[in-house]
Amino acid sequence: MKKRREARVKKSLLVDISRRGLDQMGVTVDVSPRGMCIATTQVIRKRSRLQILLAAGDDIHAVTGLVVWKRKREDARKEEAPVGLGIEIEKADPGYGRLISKMQQGSTFGARRSKLKTRANPAAGARRTKTGKKKQSTKIQEPDFE
Description:
By secondary structure, the chain is mainly beta. The chain has one helix at residues 94-104; strands at residues 9-10, 14-19, 22-31, 35-40, 49-56, 59-72, 83-92, 115-120, 126-128, 134-136, 139-144. It has one helix and eleven strands. The strands form three sheets. It has a six-stranded antiparallel barrel with strand order 2-3-4-7-6-5. Strands 8-11 form a two-stranded antiparallel sheet. It has a two-stranded antiparallel sheet with strand order 9-10.
């Protein structure tokens, strides 16, 4: 089995796949500078050349790639069976390479990270201390959207 030169990043990004004027939607399973795996519902023949538009945040990246493998999920009903497509990237806009680099470094590519604040959970109930005061027993993480 061939070993990949570059690590893939598991990331779900919406893609528009065009082949000979026919469009369909899909979602990436993982991505790398040289390839990607896409989940879709329609089978595309191996060695098919695809034009892919990949949506990441507010940006759209254009990629041309070749289907090098396909796998169909056998345990689902025929009309709902997801198909995995292995895509070898032949050509991509410069922004795609920057996007993958940022993802490999752990960046959120434009999305702001929310700060988590800890606060007592009023639904969890309170216990009384020896002095009779209520004491919250459970804490939860709640996002802060400042």
